[in-house]
Amino acid sequence: MIKRPNILLTGTPGVGKTTLGKELAIRTGLTYVNVGELAQEGQLYDGFDEEYQCPVLDEDRVVDELDEKMGEGGMIVDYHSCDLFPERWFHIVFVLRTDNTQLYTRLENRGYTGKKLQDNVQCEIFQIIYEEAMEAYQQEIVHQLKNNTPEDLEHNLERILQWTEQWMQDHN
Q: Region LID: start and end of each range (predicted)?
């Protein structure tokens, strides 16, 4: 029986998933996994996308890599997409959202340009990741979190910490 919850942090690149996930891991003792870093370390790729100038994730290999750990519980998974993961993995899903002006600046500062920059901002405008999450998971476990300011980040941390503590009380 799982004694610690699995949490998915998802959203458009640049919304603050990594910052939130790392701090959440420190405060909860849960294990943080950045899927992009996991893929890079294990070379879990299936080619290269010339248009976006990035490797193409081998989703099946990523799922295989994480499956045993997810079954044990206590994982915080950070990725900009969510429909590749089995529904059974997560107890709660948080979709981070950011104001488009801030997102544009954050992505520009990361070196995003042209189509890659525009497509990611449009993804945020049209709530693509949120809609993916609502289709991939039970709607009652999917929550949107505004993440524009340091105050938003702290509020989000507190909210997820409270949820995690309650989940562990209810399941242990």
A: 109-119
Q: Coil, strand or helix: which one is 47?
A: strand
18 is known to lie in a ligand binding site? yes
Kindly report the pTM of this predicted structure.
Answer: 0.96
* Percent of the chain clearing pLDDT 90 (strictly above): 97
Distance spanning both ends of the chain, measured CA to CA: 9
Share the mean pLDDT of the chain: 96
Q: Are 74 and 30 in contact (CB under 8 A)?
A: yes
Is there a binding annotation on residue 36?
no
Mean pLDDT of 120-148: 97
pLDDT at 26: 98
Q: Flag whether 110 is marked binding.
A: yes
Who contacts 28 (Cβ-Cβ below 8 Å, separation ≥6)? 76, 161, 164
Q: Where are the alpha helices (DSSP H) in the chain?
A: 17-28, 35-42, 59-72, 100-109, 114-125, 128-136, 150-171
Spatial separation of the C-alpha atoms in residues 72 and 91, rounded to whole Å: 13
Q: Is 17 annotated as a binding residue?
A: yes
Domains of the chain listed by start with CATH number: 6-167 (3.40.50.300)
Provide φ and ψ at 13, rounded to 5°: -55, 140
